[in-house]
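Repro:
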Amino acid sequence: MTPLSWTILAMAGVTYGLRLWGLLLPGARLRGYGRRFLDAVPVAVFAALIAGGLPGADAVDGAWRIAAATVTALVVARTGGLAPGLLLGLAVYLAVRALGWA
């Protein structure tokens, strides 16, 4: 085996070892900063995925997408839940499209 093969094998071992370790510790609970950090991960991942698609093909559609994303962000910040923000942001965007404004 080449050194690159050994490196890839070692990296895979570390990655899956850490995952297995997390699964084998059911009694371990995160507290404090660790818990708050992990609670923010879904919102951060969603924001990263959506941010690249905000500017539309034309300026008008892009403006309404940004408006819907702003509504979503405000609702998520206010309620602390991702689902209500997503639903309201989607409703705003679909309403604007249905009215023919975008």
